[in-house]
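Summary for the steering committee. The consortium agreed at its last meeting that each partner would contribute one worked example illustrating the joint modelling workflow. Our contribution is presented below. We chose a case with several input lines so that the handling of multiple components could be demonstrated. No manual editing was applied between input and output; the record is shown as generated.
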Amino acid sequence: MSMRTPLSRVRGLGSAHEGTGHFWKQRLTAVANIPLTLGLVWFVICALGSSHAQFVASVGNPLVAALLILLIVSGAVHMKLGMQVIIEDYVHGEGAKLAAIMGNIFFCVTAGLIGVLAVLKLSFGG
Amino acid sequence: MAEISQAESGADKRPLSPHLQIYKPSITMTMSIVHRITGAGLYFGTLILVWWLASAASGPAAFDFAQSLLGSFLGRLVLFGYTWALFHHMIGGIRHFIWDTGAMLDKHTASKLGWASLAGSVALTLLTWIIGYAVMG
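What follows is the complete predicted structure of the assembly.
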């Protein structure tokens, strides 16, 4: 006999209430990161030795700015998911694990936000 | 409720299942470990990208400083490692996508795939840097 409520069984999200959410988001951002990262590599090569004015002009192209922001957001989510798995594998104390998982989220959100704000400022003319 | 210590319960005397040191390293195992290490490296490597973009947003002086630091010998060395970690993690991810479909999971194919991902990441890294130096002139 199952102790779970009918609603819980229908939702199928399990005890963590997340279902396959982690796996799905990890794969989704991984797929997105492939073309976005290749775009970044190309962008960096083009930016080699460029002056500040040239750099601002290139990020002023909406396509470049959009791809950079997409990469930063997708990358930050992917980073958060990946580091969480590493923490869950190696940090066993409940307190330390909770602190590490929180710190991981703070790190990814902060790094991502700084990156997005920098690109937005550059895209609007430096 | 009094907690039972590991020694009292005898938990520390229980036999362990075979651990990392027991196994002879295989290419699939090594690539799995390297996938995680490159992932963690890229996690902190993101700070370089964010710092670079933030420096450009801060103005010409900060950007020129960042460009000169990244262009120094040490900067290039770090970026070379960053490039390899990026490609290795990317190819490792593609390998996981292949495995997600259930394909290429048998022992010998998986080993070949491991070697191929290592070769691929090195080749793509070198190609990127050759193009980079060619563009710089």
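Chain A touches chain B through 36 residues (CB under 8 Å). The helical segments of chain A are 6-11, 21-47, 52-59, 62-90, 94-123.
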